[in-house]
Each structure stands twice: as C-alpha cells, then as structure tokens.
Amino acid sequence: MTAPGTLYGLGVGPGDPELVTLKALRLLRACPVIAWPANPEGHSMARAVVAEWIHPGKIEVPIVMDFVSKGRESALAAYDAAADTLAGHLAEGRDAAVLCEGDPLFYGSFMYLLERLAGRFPVAIVPGITSVAACAAVAARPVVSLDEGLTVLPATLPEDALSARLAATEAAAVMKLGRHLPKVAAVLDRLGRAEGAVVVVRAGHEDQRVLSLPEALSEGVPYFSLLLTRNRP
Amino acid sequence: MTAPGTLYGLGVGPGDPELVTLKALRLLRACPVIAWPANPEGHSMARAVVAEWIHPGKIEVPIVMDFVSKGRESALAAYDAAADTLAGHLAEGRDAAVLCEGDPLFYGSFMYLLERLAGRFPVAIVPGITSVAACAAVAARPVVSLDEGLTVLPATLPEDALSARLAATEAAAVMKLGRHLPKVAAVLDRLGRAEGAVVVVRAGHEDQRVLSLPEALSEGVPYFSLLLTRNRP
Predict the structure, then answer these.
(1) Nearest residue on chain B to A27, judged by CA atoms?
(2) Range of the domain at B71
(3) In this structure, is the dihedral angle defined by the CA atoms of residues B29, B9, B178 and A130, taken in order, positive or negative?
(4) d(CA B54, CA B32)
(5) CA distance B163 to chain A (A)
(6) A157 and A82 assigned to the same domain
(7) pLDDT digits 0-9 by tens, B100-149
(8) With an 8 Å Cβ cutoff, are B129 and A134 in contact?
(9) CA distance B175 to B16
(10) Band of the pLDDT at A233, cuts 50, 70, 90?
(11) CDD domains, from UniProt (chains A, B) (predicted)?
(12) B172 and B108, same structural domain?
C-alpha cells in the first residue's frame, strides 16, 4: 500500500517573490502537484508570485472561482471539486502544495481545503508574510508595541461595528478597503484618529504606495489596500 | 562625499531558519554590518536563527540588554549606543542590517532603532513571519476568516482589560503567556471560550508543541507561548 502524500498549505506572501520563505520555495520545488486559486479568467495572483519556480512537468490544479457573479455556493463547489482532485493525488502518494497569497490561515481560502482534507491526509502549513506586516514595512511604521493591543478588521463591517472596535484598541489594521474607505475614514475622523492613519496600496508590488487618509480618499484605492492606525506617534 | 548606507530591519521569523524570506537572506549576505539584540549573557535568538549565513568578516554590533535586572532606562541607553555605532557605519556608506525576531514592526524592538535613525538615513524594512502566523501553522487552524475581526493582545494586560477585549472579538491571539496563563485561562473560562483554545509552545523550533488549555495549565508554559481562540469551530 502506498503511503499517502502530504497536503501543504504554502504561504507565498503579499506579491514580491523575494518575500517567499526558503521553506515555501523548497516545498514548491519538491511537490509534484501544485494547486492555486484563480479568478474566472484563470488568473492566479498566488501562482504569479512563484511562477518562475514552477518547473514544467508539475501537475497543476487550478481552483477557479467566481464569488462575484456566481456566489458562495458556487465557490464552495469549486473547493469540493479541488479537494476531490487533490485527494486522488494524495491517496496515490503524491505530495500536493496549495499556493496561498499572504498567510494560509490569515483570512485565507486555504481553510476550505483544510477542512475538507485534514484528518484524511497528513497536513503541513508553511506560514507566509501577511499583508499587515508587508504594509507596515512599506510604510516603515510600527504596527503595535509593548503592552498595546492590535485589532485587525475587514472594512466590510458595518459602521457601528467598526467604530466600537476601533475605539477600543490602541492599534489597528483595516483590510479590504476599496469602496469602504469613506466609511472607515468617517469613523476614524469621529474618533479623532484620522490624522496619523496611513493607507498602503499594493504592498509587495512594484507600484506600492503609502498615502495619507486625505490622499487616499481623494484618489480612491483598490480592494486590496490596508489602513494602519496607532494611538502612539 | 560618500552616499550614506541603508538601515535594514530584517525580520528573521520565529526560529526556523527555513522561515526566513529570500529577501532577508539576500540582504543579510550583502550587508557588511549586522546588528542583533542579545541578552546579558550575550545570546541572541535572532542571530542564532541565521547564524549559518553570517560569513566571517562581517562587522557585528551586539545590542546587549538587561530589561529584567536593569530596567527600561538601561535598555534605552543600549539602543542609544547601538544607534550611535550604526550611524557611524551608515554615514561612511556601509549598509547595516538589524536582525529582528519575527517581524520588525510587530511588537519588535527594532522600532527603537527606527525612531533614532529614520530621517537621518535611508531605511528599508523586510517583513518577517510573525509568531501568530507561525503558531497557527503549527496548530493547523485558521487564525481568522471572512468578516471576522482578530484581536492580538499581550497576556500582561490586567484581567478586566483582557476580558473586555476578548469578549468583543471573534478571533484572538494572546501572546507572552508564561506566568500570565492562569489569568488568561480564567478569563476565557468565564467567557465560555476555554474549550476551543489552543496554546502553542516554541513554534518554529524543533520541540514545538500544541496544547489544550488544561494541558498548558497543568504543565506551565514559557513566556514565548501563544494562545489562539476563535468563535467558529
């Protein structure tokens, strides 16, 4: 009987291939099967980050999803199908690496495969650089220090929830800004915390930028932008 | 006139040399000056992680601190002295890399050097794998997902502050457990969140372990342990 393969969740970081860890690179090269999430056009941000290291001859498993026009059920069906395909490879003894933007367990879709395959096969997870750490590095400012607490929130939350959570923390990172930025800015303004906030756009990519809140509001920012705020200077 | 060197804050991750990024490794090899925090005995966790890549001939700048017996003022004096030494090298055009456990800006002491040297010299920060991501990977469980918020807290906070913050969040990571674990456990117990919590000890090291809360309480855990809790299963 063949020993089953291992399912690897590989964090590939925020976008810069140099922000991949040595461990993720080694496993990417070693695994015969590589799965990656893709949009309806077949583009995969996670695959693009490590494309130079994916050698010909790998078995690739695209996980194509269309949350926006086909909804959550369709996406879950895509994970079911990918889990079945990966289970086949794992059962035949082939290790499989799932590429994950950022960190696999920090707002990542890897957890859908984890819950479908853990228990049935060996699993190992390689942590990745999160968007929070990447954005702070670009802005060169502390995320959180000493006895402060840090709260990480998606900007998609309702205004009153955002307000309560931000009022109760010393430091915060607000993710997924996009069209939610004016709501977040209004909350910070009422809390007297608008001035020190920075918005980081496309961290880890060549066109990364750091904007003040007024600058960000004026030009608008993409969905994958992140705001950092901290009570201390 | 010589162009000044760049100050690099290099995140080296939680302890496993393989969790260093390609970028941190490249800069570590390229910089002629390497600084690292050390305890009073001269041991440096950050240096130990990357020791195999520090070639002879580097100028090394140990930053020896003794918070415990000599207090905060003495530690700040150590940063003043290190900043002076590094400023000398930077002014003469030598790039200097400061090694940082985990991520330089996530509860890191790098910010003391950043505030002393930023503005005077070019600064670049290489983000690292945080203890939160490393511990979640070891435990193979999601930190946070979808529209949940994540709160990161030091266990050193007073019991009522811990309780209020943990009651208000879907997911949490509590750091620096050590002798504060019974206090954290009591808070989680009252909130009905003790059952799903896990404690990760020495993530990224060979003897890393995942414990339930009762196991952790029974055997005690070191200061650098981390608790993960999440409302969802």
Answers:
(1) B18
(2) 7-126
(3) negative
(4) 10
(5) 12
(6) no
(7) 999 999 999 999 999 999 999 999 999 999 999 999 999 999 999 989 99
(8) no
(9) 19
(10) low
(11) Precorrin_2_C20_MT
(12) no
